[in-house]
Amino acid sequence: MPPSPATRRTRPSRPLGRLSPAERRLWDAYPTGAWVDLRSGDPAADDPAGGAAWGPERTIRAEVLTALLLGARETEPGATPGLRLAGARVTGDLDLSDATVETKLHLLNCHLSGVIDLSDANTRGVRFRGCDLGRVRAARSTVDGLLEFDGSSLRGLRLDNAHVTGQLRLSRSQVGPPREGDRTGAPMQDVRKPYSEAERRERGLDDGHRWAVWAGGLVVDGGAFLRGLRAAGGLRMVGAKFHGGLYLQEASITAAELAAGDAAAGPSAGASAAAGVPAAGVYAVYADFLEASAAEFSAGFTAAGTVRLRGARINGVLSFDKAALKASDRSLHLSHMQVDELILRPSEVEGEVNLSYSRIGVLMDRLSSYPDHVHLNGLTYEALRGSWSVAQRLSWLCRDPGGYRPQPYEQLATWYRRIGHEPDARRVLLAKQRERRGTLRSTGRFWGRLLDLAVGYGYRPWLAGLWAVVLLAAGTTVFSAVPPMKIDPDEVRHFNAFVYTLDLLVPVSVFEQRGAWEPVGWTRWLAWTLVASGWILATALIAGAARVLRPSNAP
């Protein structure tokens, strides 16, 4: 007689052989989702890091877990099935790729040395708490619920284009890059168009072992909690979306080159290398075009390598408060980014910072937050927060390694005007002209210095009045002591040294003193100097006024 459908459902896809006592306990508990606890009660003996030495009484084959999750065991009416296992040594690879799993998987303090493959699977909640795991592959998977690795150690986590409808949890986890032996074989290729070296790198086929977490295109509807994570290798999250926020407080990320020498010793070995500085172009976090409601790289976050968020969109706070950032070339790459509020107050920063062409709502920072090189060209912001003087802000603008750029000065002046600090805005624009002068030819630099000396490029018009007072006083004193000679002796005129000096200073004679009196001796040089100075002051005032009154959008 052929077996009934119910009987067929209870049979695994391939013979499991005789079940061990531990496997039988798990098999019997699955229909009701009851816990199977194989721990001894001794914390030292139950540490999954030493799980490879556990005996057969705590050993379960991975194929038994696979068979249960794929429906090999008959469920019981009125009960919710589930696989809940604690303190077990799971041997072999746990292969659920392409599967649809309707029950939850929850492992606690277990040791799994093989590969856990959830690629292209559709699952309910998947939890590995306090476990010692091999490589975890979950590319293109959908987890309807919680995906958790809290307190676990992993040899590489792959989540590219995965979708987690609940939370992603990696708090207090230790993640290292996968080993060569953890790979599942070369991918099938089209003989007409084999992968190029660039395509292999893009797909993670050649250098995937350099990344602790490969999660490009990952979507997490809940929060992603990576607090206290220790990663001996970079986090690659290009285009990832964290609708509930990304939280890495107290996490320590060591870039691949620093971690590579210690990766074979275990996931936690690279943490000791964090005190070093990686070579140029090595990323601790590579997350271009990341989207999140908030992102916390703060409260003790440490990165040895570049943190790159180019083109990211943060609809809330992006914080680097009390973070430690180290890189030999660039510690932070935040260009072309949009963020509501950026808190840039790390406790330590080594390596340049790039904020070019980013749009920031509120920028909260301090002078010590920045290294010697800061890229600021194209940066716009709505508000600045922090205890900064105008001189400090100007020194901030001068740290751009690209040299003089007009936009950062104009942006800072615009902000000062917006908050009603017009004198500070004029001071910034004056500094802009002085920096610009260094980019001009010799004639332009000469005229610039003259404008600066005379009227402060129009932003200090009172300088012209000061010069006029000085020249009037000098001319009045000299011409009172050495009066000029009357040109027409028959004309009746009364000489006044002050009026005569003023008439010389004014470009167009107003008091008709020039034509009536002729300076004598060396005073001719003073008279010529006064005439030239009058023209220079008038020209400088006109040029400065034109510069100040020019519309802000004028070229």
TrEMBL record:
The chain crosses the membrane at residues 462-482, 494-513, 525-549. It comes from the Bacteria. Residues 1-21, 168-202 are annotated as: Disordered. This is Membrane-associated oxidoreductase. Keywords: Membrane, Transmembrane, Transmembrane helix. Residues 190-202 have a biased composition (Basic and acidic residues). InterPro entries: 5peptide_repeat (IPR001646). Pfam families: Pentapeptide_3.
